[in-house]
Amino acid sequence: EGGEIVITIAGGTGSGIQKDWKGVVLRGQSDEPLPGGEVRLFRVDKGQTYGRVRLTADQLKANNRVKLSPP
Predict the structure, then answer these.
(1) Are 67 and 39 in contact (CB under 8 A)?
(2) Which residues is 69 bridged to in the sheet?
């Protein structure tokens, strides 16, 4: 297992996203969550959101979509 990796997500407060939202990395092109793919948001700007994941860089390359949901 790798350590935490910081990811940047397109979309931020301008899209209504808030820091208390939940995020999950999706498996491939599906809408299924990737096991262990929970995203912990730590910063939300107007156009970008930043989160931390406990996945490897290779896992993120193969699964590069994130779903954000309000609390």
Answers:
(1) no
(2) 22
pLDDT at 1: 45
22 contact partners, CB below 8 Å, separation of at least 6: 38, 39, 68, 69, 70, 71
CB 51 within 8 A of CB 60: no
The sign of the CA dihedral 33, 35, 14, 11 is: negative
Percentage, residues of the chain above pLDDT 90: 96
Is the separation of the CB atoms in 5 and 55 below 8 Å? Answer: yes
- Reported in sequence order, the residue ranges of 1-71 that DSSP labels E, i.e. its strands, are 5-10, 22-26, 33-44, 48-53, 65-69
pTM beyond cutoff 0.85 = yes
